[in-house]
Amino acid sequence: MASQMSRIMRPDDANVAGNVHGGTILKMIEEAGAIISTRHCNSQNGERCVAALARVERTDFLSPMCIGEVAHVSAEITYTSKHSVEVQVNVMSENILTGTKKLTNKATLWYVPLSLKNVDKVLEVPPVVYSRQEQEEEGRKRYEAQKLERMETKWRNGDIVQPVPNPEPNTVSYSQSSLIHLVGPSDCTLHGFVHGGVTMKLMDEVAGIVAARHCKTNIVTASVDAINFHDKIRKGCVITISGRMTFTSNKSMEIEVLVDADPVVDNSQKRYRAASAFFTYVSLSQEGKSLPVPQLVPETEDEKKRFEEGKGRYLQMKAKRQGQAEPQP
What we know:
Layout: E1 2-8, H1 22-41, E2 49-56, E3 59-60, E4 70-80, E5 85-94, E6 101-115, H2 133-154, H3 172-175, E7 177-182, H4 196-215, E8 218-224, E9 227-229, E10 238-248, E11 253-262, E12 272-284, H5 301-325
Antiparallel strand pairs: 1-4, 2-6, 2-9, 3-8, 4-5, 5-6, 7-10, 8-12, 9-12, 10-11, 11-12
Active site: 15, 204
InterPro entries: Cytosol_ACT, HOTDOG_ACOT, HotDog_dom_sf, Thioestr_dom
Protein name: palmitoyl-CoA hydrolase
């Protein structure tokens, strides 16, 4: 089963330099994934359901997209477990004046089917037909790996980003930012919980503000580490999206983004962590060339620990890219 959608990029999709926001692309990726997953989960007779986003694997922004280009988003279901669907999404940009096309994004998303009668109930997923036997085994390995990482991540990010008065430049406190948003009907599915793409777009906006404050130049999203959705966000909640710099290399910045939901109209439920991820940004000149990034100055022991953890992730990904780039014997 496959699905495709296309849309031209407009000025409100981009930053002041004309580069399309990473959050805009992430939102389109999620919409394509939600459509194909919901179609598949309702392909057999049974209780009707809607697919909800549970996780987005690491995605790299391979090439910037600009105003006036057309984004072509294609989605395909590549694995199903008993209660989840894996969707692979590719994004191509097209210059409609020249006809030139290029791959800008590849993403893997995981969805779970929620009953329309009770959105807290997860239903079973119809099996998918594989073109070759190895696909199912490969998909099962990916499923087990993401399931384990989601459980580890759920309890890793328990702290809250607190404001600090009169912070020094290049410190974590200087660039950290928060956005408070009241969840309205336009943010939600017909069943009263927030679209995953809406949350990701807000997360990218906050991460972009942190990056811009730190380096004071034009910035673009380079990659997003796995985004984990720990719990649904319902209509009427107040969400706080907080971002803080964790690590800088010579030409990139890693920003941790945390989403906390406060069910203000439901006194029976306390504030909870709804989503978390790491975004990586790069600084660009007016000509679109990569610029050096001011080095982050961690002050507290927690900031120094997060810096070292970020450095580990950076070096691990750098080694992986170099390994992929090496010619095969």
